Amino acid sequence: MDHFLYRDGVLHAEDVPLPEIAAEVGTPVYVYSTATLERHYRLFTEALDPLPHLVCFAVKSNGNLAVLKLLGDLGAGMDVVSAGEYLRARAAGVPGDRIVFSGVGKTRDEMRIALQGGIRQFNVESEPELRALSEVAASMGAVAPITLRVNPDVDARTHEKISTGKKDNKFGIPIGRARAVYAEAARLPGIEVVGIDVHIGSQLTDLEPFDEAYTKVAELTATLRADGHDIRRLDLGGGLGIPYTRSNEAPPLPLDYGAMVKRTVGHLGCEIEIEPGRLISGNAGVLLSSVIYVKEGQEREFLILDAAMNDLVRPSMYGAHHDILPVEEPPAGVMPQPYDVVGQVCETGDTFAKGRPLPPLAAGDLVAFRSAGAYGAVMASEYNARPLVPEVLVRGPDWAVIRARPSYEEMLKRDSLPAWL
């Protein structure tokens, strides 16, 4: 469920008509719904009750400070994968003891930043990383709480570019080596073992891979405890998918996911951490865009928008589908026609959809890309010297710009010329 609905023939974000935002901010622009973000976070945390747990929002899905503060104020933790994301979470008011640090390539500088600022745990991905963290923590007179991310060799049956739990993926330590690496961790100075981490991929639409992975984690927990390790936290990762098309069968609900977690690991007495991103923020945002031209091609019509692949790269990168809605609701009985929906970037790959059935549209009409609140603005770039797309947060009848569109002058000032030019 989201809060982007037609009212009196116009698409609204909560109580705000989208044309109002377009008129004042311009397009393209990302628009987020506070009510949807709050609802989706609460669905997750309620699904895990009464287990002790912490829902850590995956900052990589949407890193806007206003979004992070909104969720942090509700009690969410944060899952970060860089020092930049860590500092964003802290700037949003999230305390260090609610931040977990994931990622395969943590640098020593990033480790120091997190240890100085406070951290709940590092999710360690390799033996070299474990040894580096030990050296950094010991040099600071600190103790780094850790989990080891184990790779359970489970096929998440998702897109190959977002699968992370198979043995040929770059993530984690093979589960067969876990006992040896945990034994090394227990001997290292500056390291405190607190639990196990697992994350098998993103946009999963079936609970079976989770069930398989968590069952392996439960078995490993028993083994490690028998070896003398105090396993008291299980970080189960994120990855639960969202419906990107209205016609698709809906993915499992957080309530179903919570029941599966309780069945597989609920008996272990561990605190449960999960790291949802997409399911909290994905359907909480739309990308609003204007039609520039409708171009007659040899065999098709092109809908040329002012949004492009630099603003929303998922269709170009993953072949991802986003429903596209006209902001003005078409009258009943209007027959759709196929359009190739494209952007302004000078790349054939700058294509959002091919042959997409849409009502007849004309220059100046507004369209909205649904399910764009995750991996949209955070993956945007200034390719073709296009300004980064702004972001807006809506709450009931109110809205605010939470990231402004930079001017061309601001973009140019970031460059500098060497003295010899």
Question: Explain this structure to me?
Answer:
With 421 residues, the chain is an alpha/beta fold. The protein folds into 2 domains: 4-31 and 282-413, Lyase, Ornithine Decarboxylase, Chain A, domain 1, CATH 2.40.37.10; 103-274, TIM Barrel. Helix content is 29%, strand content 25%. It is built from 12 helices and 21 strands. Strands 4, 14, 15, 16, 17, 18, 19, 20 and 21 form a 9-stranded mixed β-sheet that branches. The chain has an 8-stranded parallel beta barrel with strand order 5-6-7-8-9-11-12-13, surrounded by 5 helices. Strands 1-2-3 form a 3-stranded antiparallel β-sheet. Helix 2 packs parallel to helix 9. The protein is globular and about 70 Å long. The model is unreliable at 156-167 (pLDDT under 50).
The CATH superfamily of the largest domain turns out to be Alanine racemase
Radius of gyration: 23 Å
Total helical elements: 12
> Helix/strand-derived class?
alpha/beta
- In round numbers, the mean pLDDT is 93
What would the principal axes of the Cα set say about the shape? globular
Number-wise, the strands total 21
Poorly predicted spans: 156-167
